[in-house]
Every structure is written in structure tokens, then in C-alpha cells.
Amino acid sequence: MAISISSLILHCVWVIMGVLTVRVVVGESEVPKAKSRAFFVFGDSLVDNGNNNFLATTARADSPPYGIDYPTHRPTGRFSNGLNIPDLISQHIGSEATMPYLSPMLTGPKLFIGANFASAGVGILNDTGIQFVNIIRIWEQLANFKQYQERVSTMIGAEQTKKLVNQGLVLITLGGNDFVNNYYLVPYSYRSREFSLPAYVNYLLAEYQRILQRLYDLGARRVIVTGTGPLGCVPAELGLRSRDGQCAVELQRAAGMFNPQMVQMLDVLNSKIGNHVFIAANAQEMHMDFITNPQGYGFVSSKVACCGQGPYNGLGLCTLASNLCPNRDLYAFWDAFHPSEKANKLIVKQIMAGSNKYMYPMNLSTIMALDSTQN
Length: 375
Ligand SMILES: *[C@@H]1O[C@H](CO)[C@@H](O)[C@H](O)[C@H]1NC(C)=O
Ligand SMILES: *[C@@H]1O[C@H](CO)[C@@H](O)[C@H](O)[C@H]1NC(C)=O
Hints:
Layout: H1 2-30, E1 39-43, H2 85-92, E2 114-116, H3 138-166, E3 169-173, H4 176-183, H5 190-194, H6 197-217, E4 223-226, H7 235-241, H8 249-273, E5 278-281, H9 283-292, E6 307-308, E7 323-324, H10 341-353, E8 359-360, H11 364-374
Parallel strand pairs: 1-2, 1-3, 3-4, 4-5
Antiparallel strand pairs: 5-8, 6-7
Residues 125-126, 139, 207 line the site of one 2-acetamido-2-deoxy-beta-D-glucopyranose.
GO molecular function: hydrolase activity, acting on ester bonds
Protein name: GDSL esterase/lipase
Keywords: Hydrolase, Lipid degradation, Lipid metabolism, Signal
């Protein structure tokens, strides 16, 4: 009797310990075996998914009709009628959309999905977008990335955090605002009196290199770097500067100088590091395909924005008082500056599977295949 009771107790202890052991093991393996790699997003309004909603700034997309085609049909802070580029990349890598870093709901295991640090209006330079007052400049976005890692460290430890970050995918989109909202913002801007265009491009790229080096030092190991789009062809610039619907020459010259030199800068950085950490996405080529041949991609127009007013619907903000097209999929541009969800899908298609003309030295499908064999 005594023996059977004690063996019963022993048995219970084993069962309890067994349960505990199983739970501990599950708890540990959950972290590194997250469903898919973490995703971290940095940059401007092309990739901001709501951080600016939490800031006192005019650079925001938190009122209708923004988000009209988003699953909730409500504005989120994305500068799109629906999904933006990071959302579509998240879908392709099989993960949930990242949350804005400033969202109070980004806590606990949601942090393992990654985070979006981007802020509409920012550029490479600290003085870009000063008219928007309160935006998260790129160096502050990087400081937030460091803080993110400290938060995750308290949950899973420094080593697992490093692994999460090293194995993560990073997207950074900068540069457009340094032209549109700085150098060319007003005639005789401070920067345009200080620098000729070629000298300004050099200056921007030297600073961009420092930013990317910092991203690497913070643990980023796969970074997609998008160049600028065709700055002179967006409805805002057509409305402001174009008489006959031709892309604005000076801004096209700027994009045409910046983009190829950015690829060279990434090459220098990669050879210094000794690895293909930085991948160039040629956003200009991706856009030019449907800008030069809108009908070929199912658009009725690549010049007129779906939402806006004035010539090309390119002047002012997109609001409830603006013209709004009934079918957003027929327009390459949603508002005066930002592609529609349909155009974003075409862009992400090239990011995933495009040739070297679009993705250099390789596309995201190749990166995914390469990285899955290494981990
Ligand atoms: C921008 O600000 C950051 C820190 O606030 C600084 O490290 C960086 O050097 C500045 N960039 C330029 C070009 O002055
Ligand atoms: C891009 O991805 C596709 C697969 O989707 C592949 O066949 C192709 O060779 C890749 N191109 C480059 C340049 O990596």
C-alpha cells in the first residue's frame, strides 16, 4: 500500500515534470522556428504603414479615401488605396503584415514578425521634409531599430534576438524626398544653391552609404534598397511643371543620375563587407514599364492620379473633396505621388522574380531560396 502510494506520487511527479519539460521545449523552439523570417521596413511614404498617424505632422494618410480598397476599407496611414509594397512583400514571404513601430499594439510575440519603422516625408538628409515638422528621420528610425532589439532581447535573450535580426529581411526606401521635398522644393532652394546636381547626388550617396553601414552594424544581413522612382513622371510633377504631359526633365535627370550611382555605391559596400547584403531594386525601371505602356498593364492612365484635383489630379492632397476614380485598378497612380495597389503589385512582382535589369545582383525569390539552404 505504502509502496503503491509512493509510486503513484512518483508517477504523478514524472507526469508533471514531463508536461513541464514539453512546455519548456515548445517555448524555446517557438522563437527561432517562427513561421517565416522577420521583416523590417525603413524609409518614406512609399513604405510607411501608419507611423505618422502617431505624430503631429501634415504628412499623413489617415483619412478617407485612403484605404478605400484595403481589406477593412478604412484608412490606415498607408499612402495607397489598398496594400502597399511592404504588405505585398510580407504576403510573398508568407508572413503577416508588419505593424508600425509606434503602434501601442506592437507588443509580445507580434514583435517577432518584425516592424515597420518608416515615416512619410523623410529622406536621406536630416533637413529633407522639415516642412512636415514632426517626422521620424532615418537616423531616428535606426535608433528605434536598436530599441526594438533591446525590447525583443528582454523576451528571448540577446543571442536569439541577434539570430532573428540576422535572418530577417530588410527593405529601405529613401531618396525621392531629397529631390522633391528638398533640392527642387522651391526655386533656388538652399541645397540647390549649395550643390550642383551631380555634387548633390554624390553627397546624398555618401550619406546613404553611412546609413546602410549603420543598418549592417545593427545586424541587417539582407537588405533590399530601392532607388527612386521616375520622379518627373508622377502626377504631382506633371501638374506642376509639364505643359504637354511629358515627364519633367530636370527631375528625370536627377533620378537618372541617382539610381545607377546608388547601384555602384551598393557594390562598393558589398565588396567591403564581402557578401551580397545589399540588393538594388530599380524602382525607376519597374515604373517606366507601365508609364511608357499603361495599356499593356491594364491601366487607362499612368499620368492622371485616381484621387486629386487640378491638372493630372496632381495638385494638393487626396481628400474626400477630390476627384476619385471609380476603379482604382485602372490607374497607375493612386494620388499625386504614390502608386495604386495595382501598380504596387506589378512592382513587387519584379522584386520577387525580375531579371538583373530590375533586381541587382538577384531577385527576392533567389534570395529566399539561397537563405533557406543556409539556415
Ligand atoms: C543627421 O543626424 C544624425 C543624428 O541625429 C547624425 O548622426 C548625422 O550625421 C546627420 N547627417 C548629416 C548629413 O548631417
Ligand atoms: C529571378 O527569379 C526567377 C524565379 O522566380 C528566376 O528564374 C530568375 O532567374 C531570377 N533572375 C535573377 C536575375 O536572379
